[in-house]
């Protein structure tokens, strides 16, 4: 059963991923827009955390912060204790390539590469040698080793998303960022992907941060963070066994 903490952030710890007083202000021609306002939260390893709320509540902005694709106007995003805003370009590139995996709603597989080559790509970018065996192992984990030589357009949407998940996890990143991972899938395909996302937390110990509108997706999360107007409205935590 979920317990609810009204407007009470998780106590900060020495976790691998933390937000400390994070605000993000976008400048517009009319007036500044506050996408996030004083958000503090510590994400737990081995746990799926779902970000919930209406469009415009700050979910995507928060994901961009977690993935070191954007940076706070004030406050800090810490990965392994280091503020992402303090890193130079080389360190940020290394962080994204080795510590974070990304899954998107529309798969973003490279259409001219085979399934295997798509999964190998993060390893190649990180300078890893002998990538084929590792990529095949991760394809086997998502049940698609038999489609290694196929091109993305030869796969169903659900299969493409499983390939995208294999690519995101091929280097066993400690953090997995998922943006509406089932938003473009039918129910059966979505359920397969959600099962794998949950397994990535349970088997690999990944810190999973997932933005979703889906009740089915939210159901796999042990922690649900409800956002409203850029702030944490409430947090629901599933009681540990």
Whole-number tally of structural domains: 1
CATH class: Alpha Beta
Kindly name the structural category: alpha/beta
CATH fold type = Rossmann fold
- Shape, principal axes of CA atoms: globular
Strand order of the largest sheet: 1-11-10-4-9-8-7
- CATH architecture classification name: 3-Layer(aba) Sandwich
Q: State the distance separating the first and last CA atoms.
A: 10 Å
State which percent range the strand residues make up.
Answer: 25-35%
Largest sheet: 7 strands, mixed
Q: Rounded to an integer, what's the Rg over CA atoms? A: 18 Å
Mean pLDDT: 90
What is the tally of helical segments? 7
List SSEs in N-to-C order. EEEEHEEHEHHHEHEHEE
Parts with pLDDT < 50 across at least 5 consecutive residues: 1-13
Question: Could you state the CATH homologous superfamily?
Answer: P-loop containing nucleotide triphosphate hydrolases
Features:
7 helices, 241 residues, four-stranded antiparallel beta sheet, disordered N terminus, Rossmann fold, seven-stranded mixed beta sheet, globular, single chain
A few lines on this structure:
This protein has seven helices and eleven strands. The chain has helices at residues 59-66, 89-98, 115-125, 131-141, 157-169, 187-204, 215-218, and strands at 2-6, 17-26, 33-43, 48-52, 74-79, 82-83, 100-103, 175-179, 207-211, 223-228, 231-238.
Structure, described:
The protein contains seven helices and eleven strands. It is α/β, with parallel strands linked by helices and 241 residues long. The protein has a single domain (2-9, 44-69, 88-238), classed as 3-Layer(aba) Sandwich (Rossmann fold), CATH 3.40.50.300. Strands 1-11-10-4-9-8-7 form a seven-stranded mixed β-sheet. A hairpin with a 6-residue loop joins strand 2 and strand 3. Residues 1-13 have low confidence and may be disordered.
């Amino acid at each position: 059963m979920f317990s609810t903490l009204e407007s009470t952030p998780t106590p900060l710890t020495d976790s691998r991923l933390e937000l400390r007083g994070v605000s993000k202000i976008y400048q517009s021609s009319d007036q500044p827009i506050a996408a996030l306002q004083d958000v503090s939260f510590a994400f737990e390893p081995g746990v799926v955390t779902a970000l919930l709320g209406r469009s415009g509540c700050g979910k995507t902005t928060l994901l961009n912060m977690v993935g070191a694709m954007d940076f706070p106007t004030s406050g800090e995003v810490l990965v392994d204790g280091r503020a992402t805003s303090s890193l130079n370009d080389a360190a940020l590139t290394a962080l994204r390539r080795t510590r974070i995996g990304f899954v998107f709603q529309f798969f973003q597989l490279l259409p001219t590469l085979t399934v295997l080559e798509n999964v190998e790509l993060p390893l190649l970018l990180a300078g890893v040698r002998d990538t084929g065996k590792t990529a095949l192992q991760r394809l086997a984990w998502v049940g698609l080793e038999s489609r290694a030589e196929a091109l993305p357009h030869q796969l169903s949407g659900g299969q493409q998303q499983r390939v995208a998940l294999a690519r995101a996890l091929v280097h066993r990143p400690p953090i997995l960022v998922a943006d509406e991972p089932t938003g473009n899938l039918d129910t059966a395909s979505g359920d397969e992907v959600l099962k794998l996302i949950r397994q990535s937390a349970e088997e690999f110990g990944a810190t999973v941060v997932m933005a979703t509108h889906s009740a089915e997706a939210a159901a796999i999360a042990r922690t649900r963070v409800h956002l409203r107007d850029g702030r944490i409205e409430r947090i629901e935590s599933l009681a540990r066994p």
